[in-house]
């Protein structure tokens, strides 16, 4: 049952592109990328980081995004090429986690390996069809528009760790 899976979560993994952001990339005249993020997702991540290991997965250096969404608490930024599966397995091993402990939210085909490595796969409402097909939970929110908040809040409320007392 879905709620039983939510209750077993001990760690979160979120794809940066398409989950933490809306998937669009704006590029400055200097060639620097800018991303669209949702303040409610940030609030939820800042709640969760006090109770769970959290990793953000992307294909480039996204420390600015990680710093903004999670503050100093999110230190695990997993960068890789095409093999998100092995990067995630290494992270889980380093944290003493097994697959059943980890909830992974992805949005596109490159996220499928990481989602398969996790015990629980989820995606935003606007995820690619291939991702929707393997997700145990599909948020009613789009990536970069509250999907992270939706997922974290459900897990934390079911586990009794959501308190709403941390300001963003």
Task: Describe this protein's structure.
The protein has 168 residues and is α/β, with parallel strands linked by helices. The chain has a single domain (2-159), classed as HAD superfamily/HAD-like (Rossmann fold), CATH 3.40.50.1000. Helices cover 40% and strands 21% of the residues. It contains 8 helices and 8 strands. The strands form 2 sheets. A 6-stranded parallel sheet has the order 5-4-1-6-7-8, sandwiched between helices. Helix 4 links the parallel strand 4 and strand 5 (76-79). Helix 3 runs parallel beside helix 8. The mean pLDDT is 84.
Characterize this entry briefly.
40% of the residues lie in helices and 21% in strands. The protein contains eight helices and eight strands.
Record keyword descriptors for this entry.
168 residues; alpha/beta; Rossmann fold; two-stranded antiparallel sheet; 8 helices; 8 strands; 21% strand
Give the arrangement of secondary structure elements:
Elements: H1 2-8, E1 11-15, H2 16-20, E2 21-27, E3 33-37, H3 39-48, E4 54-58, H4 63-70, E5 76-79, H5 84-95, E6 102-105, H6 112-117, E7 120-123, H7 129-134, E8 137-138, H8 147-159
Parallel strand pairs: 1-4, 1-6, 4-5, 6-7, 7-8
Antiparallel strand pairs: 2-3
Helix pairs in contact: 3-8
> What structural class do the secondary elements suggest?
alpha/beta
Percentage beta strand: 15-25%
For the record, give the distance between the C-alpha atoms at the N and C termini, rounded to a whole number.
Answer: 32 Å
Q: Number of helical runs?
A: 8
Mean pLDDT: 84
CATH class: Alpha Beta
**How are strands sequenced across the largest beta sheet?**
5-4-1-6-7-8
Percent helix: 25-40%
Please identify, by name, the CATH architecture.
3-Layer(aba) Sandwich
CATH fold-level label: Rossmann fold
Low-confidence stretches: none
The beta-strand count equals 8
- Number of domain modules: 1
Main pleated-sheet profile: 6 strands, parallel
Shape: globular
Order of helices and strands: HEHEEHEHEHEHEHEH
């Amino acid at each position: 049952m879905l709620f039983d899976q939510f209750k077993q979560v001990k760690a979160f993994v979120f794809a940066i592109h398409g989950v933490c952001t809306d998937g669009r990339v704006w590029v400055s005249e200097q060639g620097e990328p800018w991303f669209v993020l949702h303040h409610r997702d940030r609030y939820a991540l800042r709640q969760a980081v006090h109770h769970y290991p959290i990793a953000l997965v992307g294909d480039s250096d996204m420390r600015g995004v990680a710093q903004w969404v999670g503050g100093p608490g999110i230190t695990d930024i997993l960068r890789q090429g095409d093999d998100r599966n092995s990067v995630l397995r290494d992270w889980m091993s380093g944290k003493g986690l097994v697959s059943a402990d980890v909830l992974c939210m992805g949005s596109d085909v490159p996220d499928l390996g990481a989602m398969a490595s996790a015990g629980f796969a989820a995606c935003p409402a606007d995820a690619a069809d291939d991702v929707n097909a393997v997700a145990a939970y599909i948020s009613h929110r789009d990536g970069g528009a509250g999907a992270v908040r939706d997922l974290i809040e459900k897990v934390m409320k079911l586990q009794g760790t959501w308190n709403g007392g941390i300001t963003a």
